[in-house]
Amino acid sequence: MKKFNLWLLVFGFILIGMPVFSAAQRDTEAPATGPVVGSGAPGAPFSYPITSGGRVTYWQQVQGVWASNFSNLGHTPMAQRLMQLTGVEIEYLHPPAGTQVEAFNLMVASGEYPDIIQFNFHTSFPGGATRALNDGIVIPLNDVIDRWAPNLRAFLNERPDIDRSVRTDDGYYYTFPFVRGHDRLLFSSGPIIRKDWLDDLGFDLPRTLDEVYRILVAFRDIKGASAPYTAAGGATGQFVYPFGQEGAFYVDDDGRVRHGALEPGYRRYLETMAQWYREGLLDRDLFSVNAATATTKITTGVSGISAGSINAQMMTWNIAGRRTDPNFTLAMFPALTLNQGERPRFSNGDLPYGTNTISMTGISTQCSNVELAARFLDFGYTHDGHMLFNFGIEGTTYTMVNGVPTYTDYILNNPQGISMANILGGYALAGSGGPFVQNVGVVDQGIDQYEAVIARDTITAPWILRHKMPIISLTPAESSELAQIMSGVNTFISERNARYILGTEAFSTYDNYMATLRSMGLPRAIEIQNAALTRFNRR
User: Fold this and answer.
1) Per-position DSSP letters for 100-118, written without gaps between them
2) How far apart are CA 8 and CA 22, in angstroms?
3) CA dihedral sign of residues 536, 365, 175, 158
């Protein structure tokens, strides 16, 4: 592996504790491979820790659940224990929070890579995993998994649905995946509501859009909430689901790709949001709200409904809100419908192997010891790795009770008042992800987890996931064309939606809005996605 350059500091991409490096893009016809060092063979005796030792560099973004207490993942008790158990020294490399895409592009621009890269190749890199392989950024893992990752190989053999998702259309494996190991782990975010206010007012958790409306009115008029609904980035996407669609690309009941902006329900959704905004039910500053202001508004009673994840928002907000109001309680409400008694068809949710950064970990073409990197990553699929990454360190963060890993009071009732997610973040990867299978036990414990368990049971049901776009692969030509189309389309949709909701654009222009989206190539983008989905289904 090349020595990393320091010139990137000039551009302000400073790693937490070390400099950011970058790498040059190459165009090749087939996936490039890196040096394979080692003598491991399928079935050869092997055990951890690796007695010969060794060192790997591991690039990944900052995760909030550990970054609040540690400047580098390598400083956490989890990482220290991981190095002891595997015998591998790990140098973690982190771009500053929120800059991972820019930092990754700089890495691609200079041609210098670490041993291991954890990044969202699917949605944050034009061309996806196929291009990352073809451009020589990461290596195909077919032989690597068969030779040096027997635990991942066994898992993929048991889960053919995951196996086909972590391969390209050409059959190349590219990742050591993060997999949600239970249906209840598939729903980790959604609409968040003041449950204590609902109880005071005699409301149940809402199940229809009209019930949400009546609750917002009550929050405004009775609870005095000046911004009854608020969310970072002006997010209102969860309210499009009752109209029988997603807001972006999704798979319809017939297995064809559609885009929500072109569907009839989208106008009804925007008209509803515009009405709510006129009536003061949506934050007047909705489209300028960031994560910090959303936190302040929901925890101080300015707002009563928001959106976010169970770990990063709901559980953290519960702790913050209870500092001034011991009755402060948040919950997530179920997937919404238009009419009472209908079965919801769309909602928030993730596939077992999803599209976010924590799901994808590859070995770079400049890795000096591929066997060592593969053995290290395969540890996450062993029993010991599973326990460490999900529950932390036995005796400190969990103990075995009747054969069940059970979190200790240090995690459940931390004396410093730190949320369970943030205190556990230093000892396990359960809330941040990585190369392992998440255990449902991480969401079934704790006082603060009570609301989280209810949330995962009531947000939605697994049948809704059939509408989610799987991890498809695009050809280089498709990727280039799709990126060119969607860059303009996404910007146009965001701008026009905000204008409709804020009332600065009349709905009399809506037909022109749809015509413009078509002229910008959105139907062609749907064709590209359908072609890729067809190939995925044939894998």
Assistant:
1) HHHHHHHHHHHT---SEEE
2) 8
3) positive
| Cβ–Cβ under 8 Å, residues 172 and 133 | yes
Element (H, E) at 461: none
Give the domains, in start order, of the chain with CATH numbers.
15-30+53-181+354-438 (3.40.190.10), 189-348+440-467 (3.40.190.10), 476-491+507-538 (no CATH)
| Whole-angstrom distance, CA of residue 362 vs CA of residue 166 | 11
Question: What distances in angstroms separate CA 196 from CA 126, 199, 285, 311, 321, one per listed residue?
Answer: 45, 5, 25, 19, 11
For residue 458, give both structure tokens: 């009531």
Give the tens place of pLDDT for each residue, 433-458. Answer: 899 999 988 877 754 555 555 555 55
Per the CB < 8 A criterion, the answer to whether 393 and 429 are in contact is no
CB environment 243-259: b (16+ within 10 A), e (fewer):
bbbbbbbbbeeeeebbb
- CA 372, CA 377: separation in Å to the nearest integer? 9
Phi-psi label, residue 433: left if phi above 0, alpha if psi -120 to 50, beta otherwise: left
In the structure, what pLDDT confidence band is assigned to residue 462 with cuts at 50, 70 and 90? low
Which tokens sit at 362? Answer: 């590859």
Rounded CA-CA distance 114/369 in Å is 11
CA 261 to chain CA centroid, Å, is: 23
> Around 177, how many Cα atoms within 13 Å sit in the side-chain half-sphere?
26
Can you say how many angstroms the Cα of residue 163 is from the centroid of all Cα atoms in its chain? Answer: 20
To which residue do tokens 């041993």 refer?
115
The DSSP 8-state label assigned to residue 511 in this structure reads H
Residue range 197-217, pLDDT digits in tens:
999 999 999 999 999 999 999
Amino acid (one-letter) located at 2: K
Q: How far apart are the first and last CA of the chain?
A: 34
- Is-above-0.90 flag for pTM? no
Residue type, 115: D
HSE at residue 192, side-chain half, CA atoms within 13 A, is 30
Residue 401 makes CB contacts below 8 A (sequence gap 6+) with: none
DSSP state of 76: S
Task: Give the tokens for residue 31.
Answer: 């996936």
d(CA 408, CA 398): 5
Taking the C-alpha atoms of residue 361 and residue 380, their distance in angstroms, rounded to an integer, is: 12
Question: Cα–Cα distance between 228 and 213 in angstroms, integer?
Answer: 10
Amino acid at 287: F
- Torsion angles phi and psi, residue 459, rounded to 5: -60, -50
Distance separating alpha carbons of residues 510 and 519, to the nearest angstrom: 14
